[in-house]
Amino acid sequence: MKTIIYVSAPGNNQIQVLKINQNFNLKIIQTLDVDGEVQPIFVSENRLYAGVRPKFQIITFSIKHNGTLEKIGESPIPGSPNYLSVDKKKRFLFCASYSKGCLSVSPINKSGIPQEPIQIFNNIEGCHYCNIDFENKVLFVTSLKKNCIYLYDLTCNNLPLCAKSYVLNTYPGSGPRHIDFHPKKKYIYSINELNGTIDVWKLRKYEKTIKFIQNISLLQREKNYTPWASDIHVHPSGSYLYACDRSSSLLLMFKINKNNNKLKKIGSLPTEKQPRSFSISSNGQYLVVAGEISNSVTLYEISDNSFYLQERGKISVAKRPIWIHIHQF
Predict the structure, then answer these.
(1) How far is 318 from 13, CA to CA, in rounded Å?
(2) How confident is the model over 271-283, as pLDDT tens digits?
């Protein structure tokens, strides 16, 4: 299995491709110049999608056998991109735009290239995230400024998305930013940027009820920081969850209760300065984090027994790395 790391760095208008050599050494194997500030990236099998501003577009890259990238297309979007995702059948690309306050839906052609958007949902204040659930039925979209999460049913009257069917309201001033789904059960975990907490939700039937389970603080033991939470990921095992906070430059580790799926904080780890994004490998072995201010990337190995993180490698990258993704194939 090949393990490749992709990093977007808008400070240099670049995407960098890294590989893990023997002894966990990180090596940059490609640096691509991009026409504009490259923002979010999303990998779907042999395609990498990158959102770019100020010329608002999605650039599509083909992933070669060695993990390097080749540009194959450009597609327009209505606003500055903050998050990209693709449905499970790879028919549509979804783009969240925070500044524009909108969600766009672009059909993907047979070459894996998004076309011009066919749906745009406006008035989503602080639209920061969009991703489909594991059953490929419902798209979850965060509205950071409205302190809520919108749910859109997939496929409705020959259109990709119906109007929002359900709203999850978070605490006032919390600012829901990103979400991750439990890999084995119908639970979701949403990280709140402004008050530095995580909300746990149990999904019953989307059209009827979604139960709020828990709200837990990231920094309850680190009281000298003003929260500025950024990213969240559940370990593929479904037993642990990791989150990061930019003001404290910490990675936080939580154990997921196997009975009720509530979180218990088990540790924290100083990491790259101002970590805006991190990624966990699909086999659960690696975690990588990018430091927006430190301009470097750190590779951690995840312990099989304790799920704590052991630093294995570190490398300087292009300026302002804000998105990072581990791809295994």
Answers:
(1) 9
(2) 999 999 999 999 9
